[in-house]
Amino acid sequence: MDVARALQLARDAEVDLVEVAPNSEPPVCRLLDYGKLLYLTSKKERESKKGQKSTEQKEVRFRPNIGTHDLDAKTRKIREFIGEGAKVKLTVRFRGREAAHQQLGLSVLKRVADELKDEVRLERPPAMEGRALSMVLIPALAPTKERGVDGLQTITNRNK
């Protein structure tokens, strides 16, 4: 069918002539409402995004000389994030001369990890990132049998 006839049919039916497959021989066109087509495709995209589960990463920041009550409050918050299924990045920030005492930051991370050992797994072991020491915890599929979080014992022994 020639283009002029197809356009005339579209005008008569009060719809749009939409090219569906431009690379085929001959190009394939359809008579349909273009606005409705856009709406349906955006609706499909929204539905497919709903079905996808995005893992969220939360960050909890500490200082090397954090008080016990403050540490307990932050641990409760971490437990809440883990309960929601989010990854949690624990960061100990060092200022000035504190960077010389990385073992203090490591002990803070170890205390938190030991307190949450039944609920989390270690995704990324403690490592320095600039002036901050950080590690990433993820929700545990099943409680670990060994004492402490997977791999944390070896990390602390390696840094001594």
For the structure shown, list the relevant keywords.
160 residues; two-stranded antiparallel sheet; single chain; 2 domains; rod-shaped; Ubiquitin-like (UB roll); four-stranded mixed beta sheet; Translation Initiation Factor IF3; alpha+beta
Secondary structure: elements and pairs:
Elements: H1 3-13, E1 16-21, E2 28-32, H2 34-51, E3 57-62, H3 68-83, E4 87-93, H4 102-115, E5 120-129, E6 132-139, H5 152-158
Word description of this protein:
- Mean pLDDT is 85; it is low at 142-148.
- The protein has a four-stranded mixed β-sheet with strand order 3-4-6-5. The protein has a two-stranded antiparallel ribbon with strand order 1-2.
- Strand 5 and strand 6 form a beta hairpin.
- With 160 residues, it is α+β, with helices and mostly antiparallel strands.
- The chain starts with a helix and ends with a helix.
- It folds into two domains: 3-51, Ubiquitin-like (UB roll) (Roll), CATH 3.10.20; 57-158, Translation initiation factor 3 (IF-3), C-terminal domain (Translation Initiation Factor IF3), CATH 3.30.110.10.
- The longest helix has 18 residues, at 34-51.
- It contains five helices and six strands; from the N terminus they run H-E-E-H-E-H-E-H-E-E-H.
- The chain is rod-shaped, with a radius of gyration of 28 Å.
- Structure annotation, total helices: 5
- Topology as a string of helices (H) and strands (E): HEEHEHEHEEH
Q: What percentage of residues falls in helices of 4 or more residues?
A: 40-55%
What value does the average pLDDT take? 85
Let me know the largest β-sheet.
Answer: 4 strands, mixed
